[in-house]
Amino acid sequence: MSSPNTSKIGLVFSKDRARPQPTRRPETAYRNELLRRMAPADLRLLRPHLQSSFLPLRTQLETANAAIEAVHFFETGIGSVVAKLRPAIDAEVRLIGFEGVTGSALIMGGDRSPHDCYIQVEAEVLSMDAEPFNEALSDSPTLRLFLLRYVHYAHIQASYTALVNARLKIEERLARWLVMCDDRIEGDRLPVTHEFLSVMLGVRRPGVTVALQLLEGRGLIRSNRGEVIVRDRDGLIALADGSYGQPEAEYARLISDPASP
After folding, report:
1. Residues ≥6 apart with Cβ < 8 Å to 103
2. Which of 166, 193, 235, 261 is the most exposed place for a label (fewest CB within 10 A)?
3. What's the topology of domain 169-242?
4. pTM of the entire structure?
5. Which residue has better confidence, 235 or 25?
6. Cα separations (Å) of 252 from 6, 13, 33, 99, 150?
7. Could you tell me the fold of the domain covering 16-168?
8. Cβ–Cβ < 8 Å for 73, 125
9. What span, in angstroms and rounded, lies between the C-alpha atoms of 179 and 97?
10. What are the start-end ranges of the H helices in the chain?
11. Taking the CA of residue 59 as centre, how many other CA atoms within 13 Å lie in the half-sphere pointing to its CB?
């Protein structure tokens, strides 16, 4: 079980997500941290267009090189941004949870992404069509600037993923990925298959199996059919060898409450 004394790095990465950390606007009902920390005037531009829905595993949110139709602010669950070279040659480049939103290309002035994005862990999201989202970005420079800070964080996360995929062992990469997912789910049980893990880590399934066995042998996780249970979060962070923490700290620095000094 994760240690209750281990605070998750970053502004919002706390294990107690049933009771989100308070902000200067405690009346905000949203669990998505961007919506919680957005300037009230900017939130008013988005609120009339936000629609809540539950999305099952593998729901497609963005399709590579196709126009983005909607953006999705995550309340729960996890989304994966996956790059693909050709069939069966693909890997996750970053993930999104209750700290973030899809549609980074729209925020930067584009209309499509070269990557797919889909649901990795079933999620509750607040969605709005791309057209009113683009209008809100045009109407409010402060909204775009705030969301650009999130996009910068997303790029930092992706750059660390590239670094660890190039330089760390599979079990160290797996440890980082599990901690990042643990940040974004309630409880310690992560529903995931070996097949899905092979895509997330960009390795073959036998390599995933060996890495899971190594982590389980050290008492860090329990691996069951279709799920991984985190038993020792501190141990996973140690095994990740410094690859977890810097992007999360940057999120804390970049996504601050606009009302704070």
Report:
1. 62, 68, 70, 71, 72, 130, 133
2. 261
3. Arc Repressor Mutant, subunit A (1.10.10)
4. 0.90
5. 235
6. 17, 9, 11, 10, 10
7. Jelly Rolls (2.60.120)
8. yes
9. 13
10. 33-37, 40-46, 104-107, 130-139, 141-167, 170-184, 194-201, 205-217, 233-239, 246-254
11. 16
